[in-house]
Specification:
The protein has 278 residues and is an alpha/beta fold. Helix content is 49%, strand content 18%.
Length: 278
């Protein structure tokens, strides 16, 4: 995904991102890793600034940057946070300026090019002081939803198929059974087995899937009130994104020169913690 495509995605979704931002490295995850957080702290990929605001509420001096000008504008207007519009590959801070650097989910885990990941992590490492922690978030669905999306073919190996997720989302609104042959084709399972599972799932929709759908529907409703059709939002999202498990995360970090991470599993993401010893 090139920089222009990513910018289009984030800028299109920016006005409606607050409800989604608290998932996949949200406030709950910050609370879980607070033993490793000290100020001053920097959040790279701060979005609307929910993490910055949450850290400040805990008495931590926190700053944030984001590569989307629209996201930074939302943080300034809605939370009065003076985030900086800058790319994480070139941070405007002195060496060893922070005691904690948090690379929010979506900054490196959506980047397919290891060289670009290395640039972001290298800059984060440069501005991190000795004894500080680099905390890198990686997008993961809760276990129940992860299993469902694998059965649907939305999760395919190490890829998150956003095109399939939205295709199911849109098709089920009009003709629910029309999803069955598509899911069977994506997963390679027999049609009848897919049909039976789909009917059973439809009669008792798992809570994780229902909650995820409700969050996305809320975004669509807010956008439609602004005259922005759901199709515009869907078309701005890339068809495929990386979806790394712990082994994939360690391999990525190794390639970026950041080996030996402590990997922390939380309900909404995986956090890799790397301590700067010197």
């Amino acid at each position: 995904m090139d920089g222009r495509a990513r910018e289009r995605w984030w800028d299109t979704w920016a006005p409606y991102w607050a409800e989604l931002e608290n998932h996949h490295f949200g406030r709950d995850t910050i609370d879980r890793v607070m033993p490793f957080v000290a100020g001053p702290a920097l959040v790279v990929g701060a979005g609307h600034g929910l993490l910055v605001e949450h850290l400040m509420g805990k008495g931590v001096a926190a700053h944030g940057v984001d590569s989307s000008e629209a996201m930074v504008d939302m943080a300034r207007r809605r939370r009065a946070l003076r985030l900086v519009h800058v790319d994480g590959r070139a941070l405007p801070f002195d060496d060893a300026h922070f005691r904690t650097v948090i690379v929010s989910s979506g900054v490196v885990d959506y980047e397919p090019e290891p060289k670009q990941v290395a640039r972001v992590l290298g800059e984060s490492w440069r501005v991190l002081g000795p004894g500080g922690s680099l905390l890198v978030g990686f997008y993961r669905f809760p276990t129940e939803l992860d299993e469902i999306y694998h059965r649907l073919g939305v999760l395919d190996g190490a890829e998150l198929r956003m095109d399939r997720m939205f295709e199911i989302h849109e098709t089920v609104r009009q003709r629910p059974l029309a999803c069955v042959p598509r899911i069977a084709a994506w997963t390679g399972r027999p049609y009848w087995r897919t049909l039976l599972w789909w009917i059973r799932a439809g009669l008792a929709v798992p809570a994780a899937l229902r909650e995820e759908k409700e969050r996305v529907d809320e975004v669509f409703r807010a956008a439609e009130q602004d005259g922005l059709g759901r199709r515009r939002l869907i078309e701005s999202v890339p068809a495929t994104l990386p979806y790394r498990d712990e082994a994939g995360i360690r391999a990525l970090l190794d390639e970026a020169g950041q080996s030996g991470a402590e990997v922390i599993h939380t309900p909404d993401c995986i956090v890799a913690r790397i301590r700067k010893t010197g």
